[in-house]
Amino acid sequence: MEFSFLYLVASFGGGLLGAALGGLPVFVLCGVAAVVGAGITAATGDATFMNLVAFGPLLGPQVSFAGGAAAAAYAAKKGKLSSGRDIVTAMMGIKSMDTLIVGGLFGVLGYLLWWALANLPMIGDTGATNPIAFSIVINAIIARLLFGKTGVFGKVRSGDNRWRASDVAAWLPWQTQPVELLVVGISFGLVVAFSTVQMPALAGVWFGISVASLVFLQYGTTVPVWHHIALSTEFVIAIGGADLWWGVTFAVLAAFLGDFFGMLFTAHGDNHIDPPSATLATTFTLMAILKATGLLAVHGTASLVILVVVSALCFGVFTALKSRPHAAVEGAPSAAD
Asked: Which one of 56, 58, 181, 219 has the fewest CB atoms closer than 10 angstroms to its CB?
């Protein structure tokens, strides 16, 4: 990917917009644009709208969402926001121009990280990772180190089980039990995989729909967070020969990884290190490795068996991780895990 100085400059505006609107609201706009862009690309073969609008310097999450999340961490440090994990508040309303400027600067950083990651060596003929997602994770880690107090992996309350949601630490309390993750992964994976196999040209539309659905989360509705599930499913079908079972396998894996990264980075921390982005960076790398080794060419009954094995392993491992109950009482001091 070629470096663009104009894109770099424009990214300041995108990061500032993310801060002004809030990380989640601006990401919802990205989802709406992605739905429109997927339709335009399918109809005309031209991806300009998708690349320039949905994933460009204004709404691209590597710029706008990253800027909004970093600005929230900064505002919390300055006492202008109650929590650095707050990605729903529009920070235009806190009347703090320095907060918006921080969003703009982290938008610029987001572009630089994205550009660097997009130029990593390929794994076979596939990108080494999802550079947008990975850049968001790195951006948020930098924000935590600069503005937070909990360290990269957060601080777990003494006696608590890191991997089990509690009254003081959770990412998505309604989407964390192994059975919940398994059902969501299989169910959403099936519909996204089936639709993508039937009409490959519309790949990306389910990512857009899943992101747009987060508008309900903005207003407190406990909807599922599933864009990491949708995009993992769409991408593995796109590169792996349109096999439905591989799509569902990566949907299940993404569902569990989302919770894993949520409890590793976000639940016990004081800013938002995005679990879906960490998931997508991981699943895209794993897909590239599997494709390079030829394993993604395994289709039919064999890939169905792989789905069953992966589902059973994820369910078993996460059940074990979450099995130890919390020993702490609410209000006990926190300590590094």
From this structure: 219
